[in-house]
Structure formats: C-alpha cells, structure tokens
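Recap quiz, item 2
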Amino acid sequence: MIPFLRKRMISSAIPLFCVVLGVFFLARMTGNPVDLYLPLSATAEQRAEFSAAQGFDLSIPAQLWNYLVDAAHLDFGTSLRTGQPATEMVLDAFPVTLQLAGVTMLLAITGALLVGSLAAYRPNSLVDRIASLLSMTAASIPDFWFAIMGVLVFGVSLGWLPTSGTLGGPEIWILPVATLLIRPFGVLVQVVRGSMVTALSAPYVKIARSKGATPQRVIFGHALRNAVTPVLTVAGDLAVGLVNGAVIVETIFGWPGIGKLMIDSILQRDFAVLQAAVLLTAVTIFALNILVDVCHALTDPRVRLAVPA
Amino acid sequence: MPREEPTTADTTAGASADTTADVAAADTPGTSAAGALDDPAADTAGMTAAGTAETAASGTATGAGRAPHRANWWRMLGRDRAAAVAAVVLSLVVLVAVFGRLVIGDRAQRQDLDASLRPPSLGDGVYGLFGTDVLGRSVLARLVDAAATTLSVAVPAVLCSLLIGSALGLWAGYHGGRRESVALRVADVILSFPSLLIAVVVLYVFSPSALNIVLILAVARIPVYLRTARAEAAELRSRLFVDAARTFGTPARHIIHRHILPIALPTLLTVATLDFCFVMLTESSLSFLGIGIQPPDVSWGLMVAQGRQYLQTAWWITVLPGLAIVFTTVSATVLAAWVRMATDPAQRWRLTLPTKRRGASAAVPPELIP
C-alpha cells in the first residue's frame, strides 16, 4: 500500500505542477496581468502602484520564481475586494463546500446502491423500468432550474423550507443537498444497475441461489462487492463534477462556500482569490482520485496485486 | 463489445480475458483508473453475449454482413414508443432551431411595455401563448430564438470534440505503447477538472463569446471520446482481420479508417448523443451564472436567469425555458440508449420484440459522467 501511495502521489504531482504553471501563464497570456487583477475602474496611479507592489515590473522568469516560492508558502496575495489574504478566505469557504459535497455523495452512493440493486435484481420488471426512466431524467435535469423550482414550490408557494441562507435547523440542508444530489444519483443508479446485472448473471450467483441464499444475501453478500468497482470510478468522477453543482447551489442558496467564492471573484475581477480557490480545488480533486484508487485496491485484489509491480 | 461478425463463445471468452488483462496489466495508476472505467462496457458486452448466446447467434447471423434495410430502422423506432417520442421531440427542436428565426423575425427582441409580464393565455394570439417577460417580449419567440443559440453552441462543440477526440483515441489505441499512455495521461488531467471550472477561468481571462464557449466545451469533452475510442481501438487491434490487413502491408491510417473506425463508430456516436446533453447543460449553467451567452443574445439558461427575479409573480419566464432544456436532454438520453441498441448487431434483435419480452438490456455507459 505504501509504495502504491508514494507512486500515486508522485504521478499526480506533475499535473498539479502543470496547473500551477497554467494559472501563472494564463494570467500573462492576455497581456498585462494588471488588467486581470485590478477592476476595470482602476486609475492609472493605482495601476502603477499595484504593478510595482506585486512585482509585475520584473522579468518573466523572476516573476515565475517569486510566484512559485509564494505558492509553496501558500501565499496567493490579498483579495482586492476585502483586503484579506486570499488563502484565508479560501480556507474559510472550503469546509462549507466539503460538508455539502460529502453529505451529497454519501446519500447518492447509498441510495444508488439500493435502487440500482433492486432494479437489477429483476431486469425489465416494473421496478427496473421506473428506476431507469427516473434516473435518466434525474441525470438530465439542469440543476439550477431544479433548485429554482424547489424554491418556487417548497419555499415560496408552500413555505415549508427556507428559500436561501445557512441559518436555521436541518431544514436548510434539504434543498441544496437535493439539488446537488439529482445528477450523481441518476448517473449512479444506471451504473449500479448495469454492473449488478452483469454480476448477478455470474456463475457464483447461480450457485449461491441454488444453495438457497436469500435475495439480500445474494445481492449484498455476493454480487455487490464485484459490482462496486465501476461504481467507485464513476462516483469519483461525479465527485469531481460536484464542484460544478456547488457553484450553482451556493450561488442560488447563498452558501458561503468555495463555489460562490469563485463566481464572486470572477464577477468582481478578484484574480488572487480565484487563483487560490482553483488551486485548492485542484489539490482536493487529486487527493480524491488517489482515494478512489485506494478504494479500488481495497475492493479488488486484482488491482492490488497489479500495482506494486 | 460484440462486433459485426457472428458472436461466438470465442469472442465472449476473448472479451472477458481482455477485461481481466486490462485490470491486471494496469501497472500505472493513471491507466488503472481508465482501465476500470472501460470495464463496465466490456463486462456488459461479455454478459450479454454469454446470456443470450443462442438467441443472439441467430439474430446476428441474419443481421451481419449487410447493412440493415432503411425501413427496418423506422420499424424498430416505431416499436419503441419512448425512443419514437424522443426522436420526434428532437427533430422538432432541430426544426425550430433551424427555421424558427425566419418565422419569428425580430419578435424575440421587440419590446412592448404595455404588455409586460402577461401570463400565458390563448387569447393573445400565437406570440402570447406562453406569456410575456418584463419588457413585454414574447416568451414563445424568445424560446424559439434561444433554441437556435443553444444548438449553435452545443452542436459545433460536440462535433469538434467528437472528431478530434476520436481521431486521437483511435490513433493512440491502435499504436499502443508510449503514444497510448501519453494520450491517456493528458485525458486524465483534463478530465480531473470540473468542466465548469475550466470554463469559468478561461472565460474570466478571455471574453465570454459564443466562439469561446464552443472552444472550451470542445476541449473539456475531448478526453471522453479519446478514452472511448482508445478502448475500442486497443481491443480491435489484436483481432484477426486487423492482423490480416497488417500482413498485407496496409498502412496504419488505412487500417484505422477502414477496419477500426466503422466498428467503433456506433459507440462513439452514442457517446456523442449523451455528451450533447452534457454540453447543453454546461452551456445553460454558464449562461445562468452570467458568464455564458451574453444579452441581447438569448439562450435557455440565460432566460431562466433573467426570469429568476420575477419568480413569485411570473413563473412562466423561468419554468418554460427549463422545461425546454429538460425535454431536449431527456429525449437525447432516451434516443442514445436506443441508438446504442440498434447499432449493436448482438442486441438489435431485442428491438424487434415488444418491450416486455426484451429481457435485460445493457447499461448506460459511464461516459455519461462529466
């Protein structure tokens, strides 16, 4: 396991370095980075002062070196909006998104395993067809629209749930989590169903059935562990995609997470914060990919054996 | 996946052997993830081939070799009610997008402050059917105009990524070795970023024009086709007919074009249909966030965003464009499932039966994911 982890971390360090470089060059590709960092209304003096303070008058290699040293110290400059250090703002916002995404993925995976297995147990039955249709629809509903409809029905018309905000009891979680949930749930049900259909037609399942094992034991004891590998991969990719959803959900429901921070920094041209947020998201995603690979190794001995070679 | 040649026990064994080899040979973690992603498709293929070997053999034997008659396609579409409805909805959307602007003229932009926020009614003529927005513009006319904008972003983006991604993937998969691992690694890097995040950063630096959105979405989706095409080509390169072609000295590009592409194409087209939904949803999200299509142009996502502040008084401005998105994407998903079955010789026979007697159909491929 340790050599595997070490190898995996080294191999993800290279793309991560590319991201850091990419952000640097993106900021210089369109010409003067001062245009990028400062709001459009900045005066000429402000621009000159900012340029000198940030070292934009140095040569490109010198700037790159400073940038890399700062990035290694987690220093991405200060926000133009609030004057706070960008790193601090990003680290404040991060746990909110992480909680939201964590709850969502947990619910999506548990729910999809249950519904998908149920649908796969009797292929083409009524349950199966309803589950397929619902999951297909769930995977193709635009999340922002779903959120707005949720607000319209449950917030405005019925008044059961708050329309936005993070103050209050557990009910504030319902609409944001439901919005984030629909797409991963819809996709995962289809993946679980597909791989469970495969697993349930394997000879060992026939043997288990002929020995008189209960349906629950056949599904959860025998088939699921073999069917879970593709589900893990897709769940990992969906968790990456949750960042897309988080941007939408946090904007609509006013949650102070990293998605809202990114959109706000874009709309108010706060590049330092955007840069820190993008890099932190990238690091999280690479960590997540490693976690998915570890789970693969834990559930599938073939992967575990193949890796150290 | 079962190919055009008759399905035999040999190919089934071959497919599952390949799958095992794929997992076992995954020495680098990057390829391990990609290999695992390809697995369900291969597994499913093995399963269907095994489960329906007897029935499929007869079905494939008649269907193989020659292209199916055109009338068969229509009949198969007619048999599947959901797919037929989906096809009708999609053709309607395409027709509206292509010819709609000729019919409505400048109605989508024509303001009439006296007619502000009128609810949908049958009494106000065709353009009042879906009500008006706050500036008195006809929501129906705007929906038609937005259909054209939405499709003019989604279709070029899907075509670009389909062409580039498939070409690279087939090339990498056929040659294998270092070319394959470099291509896969690049795909992994692009795919490990949320597409919205890439779009957001690039649209921050460059201006949010329709062309930029098309380019970003195309680049963000290339890896999906690259992975699929690579998996197909890597499996096909060891087939007998490819070996035969190679023995006769056929150049690699001809082998890819004549022997590998035709077999991989149905899968790639299915992925493209599913991807169309994804691209459409991303474009709507971007427009909704205010960094996609910019006014005075209008897209369905932008209409939802514009109607949001009048949600309590005028629900139709927000609800209708959202419904338009849902109908289009759900139709594309349903049709993609049908196309996948119809273009797969080993599964096509199912479509000639009534829905109830079809048995277990294959799963939706994981390429659906962002």
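Residues 252-289 of chain B form the longest helix (38 residues).
Confidence is low (pLDDT under 50) at residues 1-66, 360-370 of chain B.
End of item.
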